[in-house]
Amino acid sequence: MKYIILGAGPSGLAFAHSLLAKGEDSFLVIEKEAVAGGLCRSMNVDGSPLDIGGGHFLDVKNETVKKLLFQFLPEKEWQLFNRISTIQYQATEMDYPFEANLFQLPIDKQIDFVESIAEAGCNKGLPMPDLFEEWIEWKLGSLIAKEYMLPYNKKIWGGNLDKLGTYWLYKLPNVSLRDTLKSVIEKKPAGEMPAHAKFLYPKEYGYGEVWKRMGEALGERIILNTPVTEIDSKTKIINQKYQADCIINTIPWTEWMKFNISPDALKEEIKKLDYASIRIEYHENNLETKAHWVYLPDESLEEHRILCRHNFCGNSKGYWTEINTKNKKQKNNNWNYTNEYAYPLNTIGKPESVKNILNWAKENNIIGLGRWGEWEHMNSDVAVDKGIKLANII
């Protein structure tokens, strides 16, 4: 084949179908699971779909991505939602983002947080620090850092924050003292609001339905239930059976340590990559909230987020929690599923390691694509966009 695509997640599927749209059919997708979709797969749990990779939703802005996905799950089969995400802060369930909704807290707490934001390094013109915890305090103020952002990040990333860099924190909106005061006085959010204010979710299915259909539409060009057990990076022979001119890698680079790769310097770069494993647990009762998902910074709780299935998945009940496996201590009998590879970690030095890995790959006619091929925490719409663009470039 011209191309062998390792992994049938959003980026691999988008790349495959974009090749077909251009008349190129000399490719094969190899997927270890029984159904396509990667982290976006769904399973039927307690009579309704549950997204086993955690919370995934379709952003409404990228028309190119929607055009591709609507070929397989038409627009009429999706429901548009105005995002409702909240934070369980002590006894208050407040709207997200935290700093724009301080008016929902008791007045003394509002004053404490405003004073802290006024002292934040970014508002006082202090130089931006390099260490993660110091950066969070510089950006948001010491009180938001202490009572929300740092405990939440410790939970989701698995404890030690000293290993994280700050190069990826551009996603956090600026916290303006003026905007904070405006929101507190007017008792409504002010300033920059979070991305994905609206999202799409299937009316009658889980999020995995669109990816499942995309996999099925590939017919004989996709091979399921086939883990990659061997790769010769020089000959491009996979599992001693399939050979490619070019390998499109969407599986975690850490899995390549099992294969015949060289030099040793490359292995050392791969060893520097880190990731978080997340356990999904289902609970059958409905929560008294309108939120689609709730963030939980309280470190006495194992879970860092709750997805309220009954508020976005039609004819369903219950909710699921997301727990970093390093934090899982309590034993229970709830239905659960563990994703070994859930989030790539943005560790110090990661950009340099990924650059070196991708340079080696390019020299060997191997291309990294998607969340794991680029070791980047990207949403599914971004992964699809990457697959489309790669097909255009090739």
Characterization of this structure:
With 394 residues, this protein is an alpha/beta fold. It has two domains: 3-84 and 200-393, FAD/NAD(P)-binding domain (3-Layer(bba) Sandwich); 97-186, no CATH class. Helix content is 30%, strand content 21%. Helix 1 (10-21) runs parallel beside helix 12, helix 3 runs antiparallel to helix 7 (177-186) and helix 5 (132-140) crosses helix 6 (142-157).
- The separation of the N and C termini measures 15 Å
Which regions have little confidence, pLDDT < 50, spanning 5+ residues?
none
Number of strands: 20
Shape: globular
Number of helices: 12
Question: What is this entry, summarized?
Answer:
It is built from 12 helices and 20 strands. The model has no long low-confidence stretch (mean pLDDT 94).
Helices and strands, with pairings:
Layout: E1 3-6, H1 10-21, E2 27-30, E3 42-45, E4 48-51, E5 58-59, H2 63-69, E6 78-82, E7 85-89, E8 92-95, H3 107-118, H4 121-124, H5 132-140, H6 142-157, H7 177-186, E9 198-202, H8 208-217, E10 222-223, E11 231-232, E12 237-238, E13 242-243, E14 246-249, H9 264-271, E15 275-283, E16 293-295, E17 305-307, E18 319-324, E19 336-344, H10 350-363, E20 366-368, H11 370-373, H12 380-393
Parallel strand pairs: 1-2, 1-14, 2-10, 7-16, 14-20
Antiparallel strand pairs: 3-4, 5-9, 6-9, 7-8, 11-12, 12-13, 15-18, 15-19, 16-17, 17-18
Helix pairs in contact: 1-12, 3-7, 5-6
